[in-house]
Amino acid sequence: MQNLKHRFIQFLALTAGLTALVACQMSEKKPTHSTDADTNRAAQFTSLNDEGVFRNLPNPALEARQQNPLKIMWRVLTEKKVGTVPIDPIPLQKLTRESLDALDPKLNHVVRLGHSSHLLKLQGKYWLIDPVFSERASPVQWAGPKRFHPAPIGLEQLPPIEGVILSHDHYDHLDASATEFLASRVQHYVVPLKVGARLVEMGVPQDRITELDWWGTATIGHVKLSAAPAQHFSGRTLGDRNKTLWASWIMDVGGQRIFYSGDGGYFSGFKEIAKRFPDIDLALIENGAYDAQWPDVHMTPEQSIDAFIDLKAKVLYPVHNSTFDLAFHQWRDPLERIAKLSKTTNINLATPLIGEPMTIGKSRENKEWWIGLK
Predict the structure, then answer these.
(1) Which of 26, 135, 200, 225 is the most exposed place for a label (fewest CB within 10 A)?
(2) From the CB of residue 15, how many other CB atoms can be counted at a distance below 10 Å?
(3) pTM for this structure?
């Protein structure tokens, strides 16, 4: 009984509403476009129906590819997983305030904290992307997906944070306890539409939050942030499906351009992003938690490569793997497959250790750190 309860909580955390995803898509009315004076933007580009539910960009094949959500639930609750959690410790490079401050303030640096969480040092200022520090990516901390490794730096040891960027509100991207800790310690929060209300509930001052629609922009200090489409969904309970927006992000700073995909399936939007934002120096692209039963909300390694090619970026940095057990594939599978594909396609791949700083535009020797680990 306890194992079944654990599995059910895991289902809620992992799928974050896959049971409602198909029903939501099937029942949505024709999208409308409107303006909203309260959201600090010029126009709304996002598909939003009359019930205030956000939608993905039109994709005629999307509905046909979706699987029965009840079958997904049954599989999550009953199927035995094999090799989805590492036996050996994940290699980790510990971070300290001193080591971070020693990074050249004139350059731009990215440090992977685990899963999709990153600490960025941009022109001397520190930023966080989707910061998750909790033990579990779950609505509760006694059950649900558990971390494979600790964060390379604790919340208490973080340097002053200029801004936090969020892609969407799922538990593996929006960590309530981390947000509550950082609430008044962060100067700016830049988030998709309607996510701001989540943050206010977690103690973030309203005047520090900027909400953006797809193709909206905001400039904070030396950093220009632009929200772009992604093909995904949102929600933290079974009753709030798609009430908040999801997005990918482009960061322009110091003559360099960084792309972060957030979560999402492969779609034509990557080509449009490349048209609007050419010359991407580093692309952080989702590569993990994929499955044939949810093909349109997470990308396979092959699709991550396709997305990178569409974006015409210089360096591929795969994220969304090696920290939580969120699917049925073996934990090494995302990295093994994308490393092999990058060699056959002559793609510049970056797979730094958890906690290893990477300087954008600086040559480095890439290491396949997962080889030999069980």
Answers:
(1) 26
(2) 21
(3) 0.90
